[in-house]
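Re: Re: token formats

Sure, here are both.
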Amino acid sequence: MAGTTVERVVNAFEEAFGSARLQKIPSDASIQLTDSSPRLNGRDSSMFRSIIGLCLYIGRERLYLMYTIKELASCMSCPTVAALACLRKMIGFVKQVGDIGVKLCYPEPGFGKISKGGECEWILESFSDADWSANKTTRRSTSCGVHFINNCFMYASSRNQKAISLSSCESELHSLVSCACDGIYIRVCAMFVLNGLVEHIQYTVSNSAGQLVCRQGCGRVRHVAGKLFWVQEKTADKSFALHPVSTVHK
């Protein structure tokens, strides 16, 4: 599996389901709609799962595919005709784009993607975002996190939130906590490898979530108190610095 390429994924799909037309985007709004289409037969279901398995490998370094692959992977237990159509669209997109790689520039000490000229040589910048209740079936949001060290891409994630958020602020808070957890782990690993101090900056596009995290106590917010207290503690003890970021950088 280590040698999985876009060409291998495209060939596997077209051998099983026929040619895929070139596409300009990996998915559209239909991937978030309630799926009431018929189930695939046994043979097609097995091939669907195999191709999604390949996609999970190529998606690790392709941020533009992570959300689509995550949504399609949730259909693996019961693949449907609509899920196959969404997979065909994504395959058409990767067929159009082809194999590309992540360019890692030589890191400049003290310079990150946004933070410039810091006192610390190594800067870990984590960006979080969420789409509030975008899934029309479960009404669950998706948490997204992207991490850079000195402007070099390190890791990204796209995850379904386990709870249904009652507001965009709550959705962004769940995403911020998820991203901060990954960032804290990456920082520890980076400090071990680099044998030096790594400054961790967490960015969020939500002013309301940022204000909630920077204060102490849950106030009237009850159902997210556990996560809120944890991230408030980490902000207070300087495990990371929390900063707002413009949506231009999303």
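Second one below.
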Amino acid sequence: MKAIIPVAGLGTRLKPFSLTHQKCLFPVGGKPVLEHILEKLVYTDIKTIDLVIGHLGEQVKEFCTNYSKFEFNFIEQQKQLGLAHAINYSLVESSEPVLIILGDAILNLNYNKLLSSSHSTLGIYKVKEPKRFGIVELNNKQIINLVEKPEVPPSNYALIGIYYISSEKKLKNSINYIIENNIKTKGEYQLTDAIKNMLDNGSILNSFEVKECLDCGTIESILRTNYEILTSEKSNYIDNSAIIKESIINNSTISKDCTVINSKLSNVIMLSGSSVENTSLNNAIIDNNNIVEYNIDKCL
């Protein structure tokens, strides 16, 4: 079985840092988001992973040289026309199942149980603001309707970024249908709309409630996730190459070749090669050119 992970996005909500760092490689809780995802697939039967790349795709290729367990295919998305459009680059005319995982969240679930499903099964998670998500309507655990970012949500259960599809060919046909008929939501070809087409054509869609979702799609959510991971582990992450002098560091990720001198850091993510001196920061991300600090109420 193969997995598809789309990581082509520009990371607009992570600017200015995403201008130089691919968003799936942001270090959160001491590891890039993509590493958190791949670690959870090591103990499954997945052997092949298609990564749909675009913005800063060479960074993704370089990172994946660290993983010998998987065979990686890198597929470039030529135009940014939506998630369904990105996924379609990887799909083939096969009746084999496929697992799709979005690259902007860390999910806690039983992957082997999900992969043993007899029908297509979508991960769902109860959210507070359903208007921001693709939302499902349920009859027990079976999905009877899907809608992308609805004005009047039929439930609070959101599609959370993991999809087990029982047939690549069925999904490919549905994506081709919405593209050929120019069916868009918010100006893009949405995976939710394609899966809705599968449902309309008789596919059975089950749901699988995800226990925990650590969002990494915005700077605020990245900082919140970093805090939750490191506080649960009661530690910092400090790379061996980092130089730390006369400083106090709490719940922070300090990447390769960073320098911290006479400073106090709390829930700070330092990207590779960055440095701080004589400063106090809470809930901040730092690179060579930017130090952006966020209001604690937004992050914790």
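The two ends are 38 Å apart (CA to CA). Residues 88 and 203 are 18 Å apart (CA to CA).
- S.
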